[in-house]
Amino acid sequence: MIPIAKDVALLPLLGTMVNAYLVGDVLIDAGTRHSARTLQRLLHGHPLSAHALTHAHPDHQGSSHTICTARQVPLWASAIEAAAMEAGTLRHVMPRNALVCAEDLVLTGPAHPVQRHLRAGDDVHGFEVLEMPGHAPGHLCFWRAQDRLLIAGDVLVNVRMPTPLPGLGEPPAVFTLDPERNREAIRRLAALDPLTVLFGHGPPLRNPDALHALIARFPSPGAQTSRLPMDL
């Protein structure tokens, strides 16, 4: 467990290729279904009151059922992602292609009831919930204005997959339901001017200029262009 800021710690589940976060006593995301043992080890000795999802993709919800059951805590998610989580199938919150189907088979965790639907403006241990659809239809981010700390989930990534090398960019299009709408979400997040950005994939970013530089390279909304070279 790596301290990041007051009441915020990074839980690296596969180096920083797959991340979860502990915000006070709330766990945000839970890796794949193979992450449970690592997650339980990292959380040992730490109180837990709830578990929240940025979105219900296999590398974020995979160990949610195990953790919520073992620690007897409620699961929180947006209404759209909650429906997928409770149905036990993620097909409506992910693109349908061969790579996604393979990931679904190998990494997706069991269904689990969602006790609270998170909405824009809700508070999660001092973080404001932001609705940022695009990568997934009910994707949430978490924003703490007092120190301008952003938990971005997969709206952005800071790794050049499939390598572990850091690199800020958009999430891979193959895993993103609506790439253009996700770019809108990135623009909205950049407007917050965060000092620290935490990702589902990749190390923390503490360079505010990097996010604005990424935005500057985007084409105008609706323009027909190829994806940026830095995209994965």
Automatic annotation (TrEMBL):
Please state every residue range assigned to the domain named Metallo-beta-lactamase. 17-201
SUPFAM superfamilies membership: Metallo-hydrolase/oxidoreductase (SSF56281)
Q: Which residues form a coiled coil?
A: none
InterPro entries in the record: Metallo-B-lactamas, NDM-1-like, RibonucZ/Hydroxyglut_hydro
Pfam families per record: Lactamase_B
Q: Which domain of life is it from?
A: Bacteria
The protein here is known as MBL fold metallo-hydrolase
